[in-house]
Amino acid sequence: MEMTGSQILLESLKLEGVDTVFGYPGGAVINIYDDLFESSINHILTRHEQAAVHAADGYARCTGKVGVAIATSGPGATNTVTGIATAYMDSIPMVIITGQVPTPLIGNDAFQEADMCGITRPCTKHNFLVKDIRELAKTIKEAFYIARTGRPGPVLIDFPKDIQVASHKFSYPDKVNLRGYKPTYSGNIRQIEKAAKMILEAKKPVLYIGGGINLSAANDELLKLAEMTKIPVTTTLMAMSAFPQRHPLALGMLGMHGTFYANMSVTECDLLIAVGSRFDDRVTGRIDSFAEKAKVIHVDIDPTSIGKNVLVSLPIVGDLKDVLGKLLGSLEQKQESLKRLVAATEDWRLMIAEWKERHPMAYRQSKTVIKPQYVIEKIRELTNDDAIITTEVGQHQMWTAQFFDFSQPRTFLTSGGLGTMGFGLPAALGAQVAYPERQVIDISGDGSFQMNSQELATLVQYRLPVKIVILNNNYLGMVRQWQQMFFEKRYSQTVMELPIDFIKLAEAYGATGLQATKVEEVEETIKKALETPGPVLMNFKISREENVLPMVPAGKAINEMVLAS
Amino acid sequence: MKHTISVLVENEFGVLSRISGLFSGRGFNIESLSVAPTQDPDVSRMTLVTRGDDRILEQITKQLNKLISTIKVVDFTDEEFIERELALIKVATEAESRAEALRIVDIFRAKVIDVTPKSYTIEITGAPAKVDAVLELLRPMGIKEVVRSGPVVVGRGAKRSWIA
Ligand SMILES: Cc1ncc(C[n+]2csc(CCOP(=O)(O)OP(=O)(O)O)c2C)c(N)n1
Questions:
Q1: Nearest-CA neighbor of A239 among A211, A216, A218?
Q2: Are the beta carbons of A121 and B65 separated by less than 8 Å?
Q3: Residue A115 and residue A129: Cα distance in Å, rounded?
Q4: How far is CA A562 from the centre of its chain?
């Protein structure tokens, strides 16, 4: 059937299983929006293109589906860049469609022209400029395929206006043929057998888990592996919800704000089994002393992650679900050796238990001021197990990672790699669109919240009952903490001089605003917010100079922590 | 250590910037880069010369392979290969130095492809070391301009670096 370019786009989206897109209109996408007017595809109008991309990202993180965002050319398109880079760093499958000036004008400095393929080349998995309507359907097919396969990531399609209005016979390809792109899913069985052998011979093994576990949906395999071998599990920020944090084998987060016992375990281990993690500098601290005594097994679908930052004794490229499945199969046949392993590692677990006892993840409760950690614990207590928590970036993000004790996969959405303030609220919006019935909560700081607070309007318009928790210290807290610890308390530009009336702000958008200033008010405030229909903002005035601890100062080894007194 | 890498890529819009952007974005160095289509008009070959230790070279080849547009990457360093570079050299010639210039051209089987009263333009093809040697010998006469293509390489004998 003959269709216009914009119709081909929408039909292709449907064939890819897309029912919801996030976006913002403009001249270079006006034809697409005209076709969306009567389309079955649900379009959510955010109040900023950056938020549209974060919302699509939040949608993708909690569902595992490809998130889709649309923006116009020029400023609309450049507004998406932070969102795209955020998704790229965390390997989130997304397709971003940007309008572009008509092909004959490209390169002309035309009105609202920006070279989006040039701008996003380093922060997309791949990008396309559609120059010919005959290529359109194939391009969309490839974009979705690339976004969701292998190591997932965002793919941008730059879509010129003249191609949107041109017409062509629509037929959607059922296969892609990309000779330069063939991700390795199946792990090499010989390597996996070697891994099994190394595991069975270890005395002090640790599993070091990254966001890949969620992406590959290998959560069950991981849990089985840990329980079968009794190997303790430490998780990166991206993987806090990939392994139940109240499990006896859970060590919590490692790295800069990791637990004492996770960082000590990694420092002392003799075998580090890295699965879907990438030895980020916030995890490793000083790289040459990271897991110094250990052999390293590294499993990842992306070969570039392996051997990038540390020497690896045994690399295994493949999909984690496949590799862990085969590893389990291999270990299951070695029951005797497994028994020996569990016995031989008993002392190791005792040693870790001792570390845990010596420096548990704890904070000092106060009677007079609200401790942020206490608020987080209360939220955990009062919400369902499957509540989806998003965060912004800063102290509140780290406290959430440290104290929330996630128990279900894909319930913690946070910008790990890029560390994007302003991510949490639109990501929560996207998650709530994906799961209208689940509790979705954005845990925020007063600084970050203001980076995308306009999205309150979107929440209200679409009746999305996201609850927002502002842990309000009236500081850019995380930067202030660094200034306190390393810059002699010179609080340069981190004091939020103007205390905002967040309740009025919420009300101005038609949302509900609540506030707690005393410890006793915390619980009732959360309860009330959860009972109130629609979006609710809770402003908690917290102890202002509370710090995130433990902390590994920049450039130090991860066992050189500043600990809570 | 110096490595010569051959990269087969889809001959499509923006592919050169993907490769060069990868190198600049990740701080890898490129000493030379040459690009042209192959026997298959849909495929271009880039030959690049870079430097780095084993770990960096491993990252370079992995990162190149990771690009969707990359079809094949061959690091020729540990292989048997033939390497050739073309150079066009404009050298100042006085009456008394002309004979010397021609002798050098002759010894290296180069060619004089343009002559003016004050200069020769010399074309030479060979391994980069040979080009270096010629330049060294011509230098005392006064080199006005050097245009080098950067090396291109091909595997020896039946060995191919073409798409498997
Ligand atoms: C977009 C962006 N700009 C700047 C930063 C640097 N930064 C990291 S944490 C932080 C402070 C965040 O303050 P707030 O949101 O109030 O959270 P708190 O640390 O107080 O919990 C800043 C400015 C960032 N991560 N992202």
A1: A211
A2: no
A3: 10
A4: 26
Gap between the Cα atoms of A144 and B58, Å rounded? 29
The answer to whether A126 faces chain B, any CB pair under 8 Å, is yes
Q: B62 to chain A: which residues are within 8 Å by CB?
A: 303-304
Beta bridge partners of B91: B120, B143
Furthest CA-CA distance within chain A:
72
ipTM: 0.93
Q: Does ligand 1 lie within 6 Å of residue A101's CB atom?
A: no
| Cross-chain residue pair A129–B21, CB shorter than 8 Å | no
Query: What is the b/e burial string over A204-243, where b = at least 16 CB atoms within 10 angstroms of the residue's CB?
Result: bbbbbbbbbbbbbebbebbbbbbebbbbbbbbbbbbbbbb
**Could you count the other beta carbons within 10 Å of the beta carbon of residue B154?**
16
Neighboring chain A residues of B73 at a CB cutoff of 8 Å: none
Token pair 């910037």: residue = B17
Q: Does B12 touch chain A (CB under 8 A)?
A: no
Q: A103 and chain B: CB distance < 8 Å anywhere? A: no
Nearest chain B residue to A301 by CA distance is: B66
Closest ligand 1 atom to residue A444 Cα is 15
The dihedral built from the CA positions of residue A176, A180, A181 and A185, taken in this order, carries a sign that is: positive
Nearest to B62 among A118, A181, A303 (CB): A303
Active site residues of A: 49, 111-112, 161, 478
Q: Over chain B, what is the mean pLDDT? A: 94
pLDDT tens digits, residue range A20-70? 999 999 999 999 999 999 999 999 999 999 999 999 999 999 999 999 999
Tracing tokens 């990254």 back to the chain, one arrives at A210
pTM: 0.97
Q: Which residues of A504-528 are buried (b: 16+ CB within 10 A; e: fewer)?
A: ebbeebebbbbbbeebebbeebbee
3-state DSSP call for residue A130? coil
- Give the full edge-to-edge strand order of the sheet including B43-51: B32-37, B43-51, B2-10, B70-75
Backbone angles phi, psi at A298, to 5 degrees: -125, 120
Edge-to-edge strand list for the sheet holding A440-445: A412-413, A388-391, A440-445, A467-472, A536-541, A512-516
| Helix or strand run (H / E) with residue B8 | strand B2-10
Helix (H) / strand (E) containing A126 = strand A126-129
Mean pLDDT score, B99-105: 95
Q: Whose CA is nearest to atom 11 of ligand 1?
A: A476
The rounded distance, in Å, linking the Cα atoms of A180 and B70 is: 5
- B164 touching A (Cβ < 8 Å): no
Compare CB distances from A178 to B17, B65, B68 and report the shortest one's residue.
B68
- Contact assessment for residue A460 and residue A485, using Cβ atoms and an 8 Å cutoff: no
